[in-house]
Amino acid sequence: MQTGVVKFFNETKGFGFVVDDASGQEIFVHVTGLNGIKIRENDHIQYDVVEGRKGLNAVNVKKI
């Protein structure tokens, strides 16, 4: 699993972005990848990365 910090997350629209700790790359995160947890800006999270339609997506997200 990779780790990162939530840069932005819009609860109303159900999506946001994570900055990966290792690469500094921004990765898209959608509410469907959260497994029922809530995330907010600056939360540290763990996640798996999968290739989505428009780029990398964070899935199986867990707070750390």
Could you please describe the fold and organization of this structure?
The relative contact order is 0.31. The model has no long low-confidence stretch (mean pLDDT 96). The chain has strands at 2-10, 15-20, 26-30, 44-51, 56-63. A hairpin with a 5-residue loop joins β2 (15-20) and β3 (26-30). The protein is mostly beta strands and 64 residues long. The protein starts with a strand and ends with a strand. It has a 5-stranded mixed barrel. The protein is globular. It has one domain: OB fold (Dihydrolipoamide Acetyltransferase, E2P). This is Cold shock protein ScoF. Keywords: Cytoplasm. It comes from Emticicia aquatica.
Brief rundown of the structure:
This protein is mainly β and 64 residues long. The chain is built from no helices and five strands.
CATH topology: OB fold (Dihydrolipoamide Acetyltransferase, E2P)
The CATH class, by name, is Mainly Beta
Mass-distribution shape: globular
Tally the structural domains: 1
CATH superfamily heading: Nucleic acid-binding proteins
Tell me the radius of gyration.
Answer: 10 Å
Largest sheet: 5 strands, mixed, barrel
Q: Helical percent range?
A: under 10%
Number of strands: 5
Q: Which strands sit side by side, in order, in the main sheet?
A: 1-2-3-5-4
Q: What is the end-to-end distance?
A: 12 Å
Order of helices and strands: EEEEE
The average pLDDT is 96
Strand content: over 45%
- In the predicted model, the low-confidence regions spanning at least 5 consecutive residues are none
Category by helix and strand content: mainly beta
By CATH, the architecture is named Beta Barrel
Count of helical regions: 0
